[in-house]
Request: fold
Amino acid sequence: MKELSLHILDLVQNSIAAEATLVELSIEEDFIKDLLTIDIVDNGKGMSKEFLQKVKDPFVTSRTTRRVGLGVPLMLAACKQCDGDLEISSELNVGTRLKAYFKHSHIDRVPLGNMVETMISLILCSTYTDYLYKHYIISKAAETFEFCFDTREVKQVLGDDIALSEPDVLNWIKDYITEGLSNIGGGV
Amino acid sequence: MKSIKELEEIRKKTLDTINIRRDRTGTRIVVGMATCGIAAGARPVLLTVMDEVKKNNLSDVAVAQTGCIGMCRLEPLVEVYRPGEDKVTYVKVTSAKALRIVNEHVMQGKIVDEYTIGAEDK
Reply:
């Protein structure tokens, strides 16, 4: 994939398929440790120990249309080529956690890319799922900048009558995330 | 500076229009967004479709996404369901193609033949 945000879009859909009602996505760009971390935590139905052991295998998938699943293997390959790794832990009926590491400055690390489009696409995918997106920047001067977007807050203001997929709402979300990320200088 | 307070305004504005469209059964545009679709460029296609639908105030058109439609080599795939008509599957869709699909097929009912799966296989 050309952007890490596309991997994120793909992997969070596994959480949606696992019937998660909340997906917590944290991206941390640590310029002191030269580390980019993508952390996805969901409260979906989780995986059995047996499935978890072989989940990085491209020939393992939960889908029924075909016998290959490339979402996780592609992310693993992206991590490995940047001196990073992918850790997945899961517990049945509790949820799944996926942590991807990259050397931030690695020449082969693809850009994080357009997180705004990824979040909008995810909201369109499942308005039933709530998303908590946190983005941290730790600068070389050891300052921490943080941006946070929580669909639960948006839903609280909108009430039950208006869906997040309303065009005007999506537009607001688009502007909100764009502005928030540019304020902290994140997303490279 | 964007604030969550602006959502109050959006809420009020949207509530007035939402009741009109609730009971309509309109056109559905579905974009395939599995690993194959995303890798092939489905995300900008989905957002282009969404923007175009909003720009033209097509309030009875629903934009949705789905998993792997099954023909990964032809991704990004877009399906258009118009009420009372057969489903039309468009293949190798780009943002530019998506604009034509919305403007010609969804809005005027003219299928963009050269982008359909039938044209691809010939």
